[in-house]
Write a structure and sequence with these properties.
With 259 residues, the protein is mainly α. The chain is built from nine helices and two strands. The chain has a two-stranded antiparallel ribbon. Helix 7 crosses helix 8.
Length: 259
């Protein structure tokens, strides 16, 4: 999966757009999306980000949907859950085993807002992750003043999430070839062995990484080679104007209720 995401980030139609421009655009949109009290602005951001990612950057739709739909499903579940459990204005109710289950307007409104924010946030994040290589994103975050220790930890976490995932898949395949999941009893036993071995492998990988980095002069700070030039002022002004328009729309539609 890492190779897929990195490969897309290095080979898309927006690859040559200044990465600082993309980082600022995505982060500002993300903040406005989360802070918006209207469902309209997050949905506008979602549509724009999906359009830019799929139709401008030409990211493969299958990969994008694979990353997007789990979050969509979770958001939908959250929407339904909040509609049933939050609020006082009942819209619909039914009985199950003598218990009355209500469907509330306040919960539905709140659920739609959370759902739209979730879609907008994920679409913004995917736009950035699939159009900009991670090394450039970390470089920009450091140049924007984010503490080096935070950036270094983020870099290592990103790298080793996929290393551990590969290790997990490899060990699981080895267990399956030995009929390690043929019934419930062997499944429990295999899962226990998998978890314990994965922990040991994780520890070993961490030790190996530290030795490797120390042998190459690691002094507590990871260095990224190369420099990224600043974007042109006209593009920055365009992005700021766009974000201001979103803020205005959010303010004007803050009392809008879809239902």
């Amino acid at each position: 999966m890492q190779n897929t995401i990195d490969s897309i980030a290095f080979n898309n139609n927006l690859r040559n757009i200044n990465p600082k421009l993309k980082v600022i655009f995505a982060i500002l949109s993300l903040f406005i999306c989360v802070a918006s009290k209207s469902v309209i602005v997050p949905l506008i951001i979602t549509i724009i980000m999906i359009y830019l990612t799929l139709f401008k950057a030409k990211v493969p739709k299958k990969i994008y949907l694979t990353l997007f739909f789990p979050v969509f499903g979770f958001g939908l579940f959250t929407l339904i859950f909040m509609a049933f459990w939050y609020g006082t204005t009942e819209m619909y109710s039914f009985k199950i085993f003598g218990f009355t289950i209500g469907f509330y307007k306040e919960g539905l409104d709140m659920g739609l807002l959370v759902f739209s924010r979730m879609l907008g946030g994920v679409a913004s994040t995917l736009f950035l992750a699939l159009t900009t290589p991670m090394t450039e994103i970390f470089y920009i975050l450091r140049s924007l003043g984010l503490p080096s220790v935070v950036v270094d930890i983020a870099m290592m976490m990103y790298r080793y999430i996929f290393v551990l995932l590969d290790e997990l898949i490899r060990m699981q395949n080895a267990q399956e070839t030995r009929l390690g999941y043929k019934d419930l009893k062997t499944t429990y036993k295999s899962l226990g062995m998998l978890a314990s071995n994965l922990f040991i492998r994780t520890w070993e990988k961490g030790e190996q990484l530290f030795i490797t980095m120390s042998s190459r002069g690691y002094d507590g700070e990871l260095r990224i080679l190369g420099e990224i030039e600043n974007p042109k002022l006209i593009y920055m002004i365009g992005i700021i104007l766009f974000e201001i328009i979103l803020v205005i729309i959010s303010y004007l539609t803050m009392d809008f209720k879809p239902i």
